[in-house]
Amino acid sequence: MKKRPFWINKIEQSWIHRPIVWLSGVRRVGKTTIANMFSDAKYLNCDLPSVARRLEDPETFYSSLNKDSKVIFDEIHRLPDPSSLLKIGADVFPGLKILATGSSTLAATKKFRDALTGRKFTIYLTPVLWNECVSYFGVKELDKRLLHGGLPEPLLSAKKDPSFFSEWIDSFYARDIQELFSVRNRIGFIKLLHLLLRQSGGLIDFTQLAKLSGLSRPTVKIHIEAMTIAHAVFLLPPFHGSGRREITRRPKCYAFDTGFVSFIKGWDSIREEDRGLLWEHLVLDTLRTIEQENNLFFWRDKSGREIDFVIKKDGLNVNAIECKVNPANFSSKSLKVFREIYPAGRNFCISPNISESYRIRMDDLLVEFHSLQSIFEYFSPFRFQP
Fold first, then answer.
1. How far apart are CA 211 and CA 184, in angstroms?
2. CB-based contact 62:153 (threshold 8 Å)
């Protein structure tokens, strides 16, 4: 079992503030593995009928535990009334620390509507972060992480197995989409998912996606919303304000994992021209882990000048982040235009090929060059360390 100290620490720190921690993420991303790392916790697999029967009387179940126990409900959405179970645990047994795992699709179901407000802290479990690859998974080759993706099973495989990815997509549709969203058009949905994976990192065009998938434009929007809730894709909105020539509406769409992008594109190796785009996905995973998602944006103007990621801070401060596999390829042209509109904030270039952070002044702008490890050290409230 690979160590995941960052996530363990994040869960434990979250328990300080809320009695319930909701660990969400796509299937096979490692939620159950992390849950089992709490050796002092009472673990229950809610997929088992015997567990479901035991939890039909929550008060009796909780009374059998010590008042300061940790209890884990894995796959809790399989229960008929999971919201009531968690609410009773938080309200009637205040010393308990509860970890529940599942997909964020649960937030869209009537089972959880408003019942846990103020009681839970939600953690999105990303595919294995690049920092974890290097420190704990023994994967030090960037191209392997980009090609295989960050789900633990394919990441640790010596060779990429296409059947894993095709089976995962089938299971995702059957258990996360059809079951929870009642989507019946399997062919249209999966075709749309393939299109989004293939176009990952680009601006989304609902009209074109409708044309290519054979679905109506409203249906495309509904399906993409379901994929977003289920963590299969992430829509990154454009940052805009006083610039008249800025893109203001069309979001970028990122797939949840680089392994699925390379699978859909049929790659068996990573080409030089594709490495930068896939590196953006890894940087985005880290930013989503250490920043509030509603503070994350990209910036582009109608002349095609672009900043990969923008982080909105307090007041007028906005941090600009560029992603470069080779930091020598960094150009300040887009950044200079951006800073003419938004002068306040820090400028970053994030690269896997930086061993020690440094600063350079370019076009009268101070640019900081960092690895993902140092970005964690700067900004994460949950330190990435053993």
1. 19
2. no
Q: Per mean pLDDT, which range of 116-125, 276-285, 370-379 is the poorest?
A: 370-379
Question: Which residue do the tokens 């990209």 mark?
Answer: 298
52-53-59-63 Cα dihedral, nearest 10 degrees:
-90
Length of the chain: 386
Side by side, the strands of the sheet bearing 347-350 are 296-300, 306-312, 318-323, 347-350, 365-370, 358-362
Query: Pick from 257, 268, 261, 233: which is nearest to 161 by CA?
Result: 268
Q: What mean pLDDT is predicted for residues 292-300?
A: 95
Q: Which amino acid is at 256?
A: F
* Higher per-residue confidence, 315 vs 383: 315
Q: How far apart are CA 309 and CA 51, in angstroms?
A: 44
* Secondary structure (3-state) at 121: strand
Neighbours of 307 (CB within 10 A): 23
Closest alpha carbon to 146 in 61, 18, 262: 262
Rounded to the nearest 5 percent, the helix, strand and coil shares of the chain are: 45, 20, 35
Q: Is 60 exceeded by the pLDDT of residue 80?
A: yes
- On whether the CB atoms of residues 4 and 155 are closer than 8 A, the answer is no
**Tokens 């009642």 correspond to what residue?**
182
Q: What percent of the chain has pLDDT over 70?
A: 94
Residue 248 has a pLDDT of 85
Q: Is pLDDT at 386 greater than 50 in this prediction?
A: no
Q: Mind giving me the DSSP string for 302-364?
A: TTS-EEEEEEE-STT-EEEEEE-SSGGG---HHHHHHHHH---S-EEEE-TT-SS-EEEEETT
pLDDT over 90 percentage in the chain: 80
Long-range contacts made by residues 140-148, C-beta under 8 angstroms, separation at least 24? Answer: 142/275, 142/279, 142/325, 142/352, 143/269, 143/270, 143/275, 145/258, 145/282, 146/258, 146/262, 146/270, 146/275, 146/278, 146/279, 146/282, 147/258, 147/259, 147/262, 147/267, 147/268, 147/269, 147/270, 148/259
Does this model's pTM top 0.90? My answer is yes
